[in-house]
Specification:
Length: 375
């Protein structure tokens, strides 16, 4: 009996025999799971080590053992040495620890936001900085600072950044979606347009603002952790914690969404509701990152890609690993930014752009090659 080739392609029975396809699964899944847990443990250890080194590095040098001893003594555990340098303990708790903690929060938020956006858009090039979400959040935060509005007290800047990021995220989502899918070219071009408009708005704020406003807007454009303090940590930490927890809770549904909208609906996922919730979560994460540091781009683009190469596309490991990896990258980047040149501090956003720009170009060409061209 003749066989229809089209039927052979569409039916799962045309695949290799079930015995061949099912044999690797019992061994591959535990191996991938072990690899994921090992990666999480390794990233956590690397992050702790970077935090100890970053907290002890500066004009007043403090060995990592003394940094750890200071933390343990503050926790009520008389273990390890305390800082012996003059004013070493004050340097740690007043200057270094707030900066390192904020770097961890910002990096975790950006890494997690990148992983979530790539899952929601089904696009490997989605990232808060690339598609204008961070720029929109920066405009909201800078506008509040320039106008002096403080309707929500210490939460005003974060709330304005959240509203700006949420607006730009929904705008990009609406403009880049066509025929039920999000195209790579449309997404990137929409992000370029949104970034251009956000840059123009920041320029207008600089034009009409005073000297303090100009410095504030320049800070948002360059990105820096120089203004880190415990008050900023107290505002950014809850926003990032809620966003990361929501992303981890939605990991399974993001995996189902990766199969396609129609299969995800058949498996019980409310696709539109999931997208709206995750877009809101992304805006919250971007706000927690941008509100006190300015625009730090490409962290959410590069880190999830590197994690995905090791663990695969499963979001249960990808989301927390991206958060840990993003935190490690920002802590290391900030350490380099403030120690590379003596008595000078490079803008962190400029440093990440110098490294992330070539990575973005490589990912763009890689995605184009896999898609068979966009002509």
């Amino acid at each position: 009996m003749p066989v229809n080739p089209a039927t052979d392609i569409r039916q799962p029975t045309a695949a290799p025999p079930p015995a061949d396809t099912r044999q690797p699964r019992p061994t591959e899944r535990p191996r991938r799971r072990r690899r994921g847990w090992l990666l999480l443990a390794g990233l956590l250890g690397l992050l702790v080590l970077l935090c100890l080194v970053a907290a002890g590095t500066g004009q007043v040098r403090i060995p990592p053992a003394e940094v750890l001893g200071s933390v343990l003594h503050r926790l009520g555990l008389p273990i390890g040495p305390t800082p012996t340098a003059p004013q070493g303990d004050n340097a740690l708790w007043v200057v270094r620890f707030p900066r390192v903690t904020l770097a961890v929060i910002v990096g975790a938020a950006l890494g997690c936001a990148g992983a979530v956006m790539q899952g929601v858009f089904g696009n490997p090039l989605a990232e808060p900085g690339v598609i204008g979400v961070s720029s929109g959040a920066a405009v909201g935060a800078a506008a509040v600072i320039v106008t002096g509005v403080s309707v929500a007290g210490g939460w005003t800047v974060a709330a304005a950044a959240f509203c700006g990021g949420l607006f730009t995220t929904f705008l990009v989502y609406a403009l880049s979606r066509s025929d039920g899918r999000t195209e790579v070219v449309t997404l990137v071009l929409t992000g370029i347009a949104v970034n251009a408009v956000a840059g123009a708005l920041l320029g207008i704020l600089m034009f009409f603002g005073d000297a303090d406003a100009v410095r504030a807007v320049a800070f948002w454009q360059l990105g820096s952790l120089a203004q880190a303090n415990w008050a900023a940590v107290a505002v950014a930490a809850p926003c990032a914690a809620v966003g990361i927890a929501a992303a981890v809770a939605a990991a399974r549904r993001l995996d189902l969404l990766a199969l396609g909208e129609r299969p995800a609906r058949h498996l019980g996922v409310d696709v539109e509701r999931l997208r709206i919730v995750m877009i809101t979560v992304t805006a919250l994460l971007a706000a927690s990152a941008v509100a006190f540091t300015g625009v730090i781009s490409f962290v959410g683009l590069v880190v999830p890609h590197l994690i995905r190469m090791v663990t695969g596309p499963g979001h249960r490991i990808l989301v927390p690993a991206s958060a840990l990896g993003g935190a490690a990258v920002v802590v290391a980047g900030d350490l380099v930014a403030r120690t590379l040149i003596d008595y000078q501090e490079l803008p962190l956003g400029v440093l990440t752009a110098l490294i992330g720009g070539p990575c973005f170009f490589w990912l763009l060409r890689r995605t184009r090659a896999r898609a068979g061209g966009w002509a």
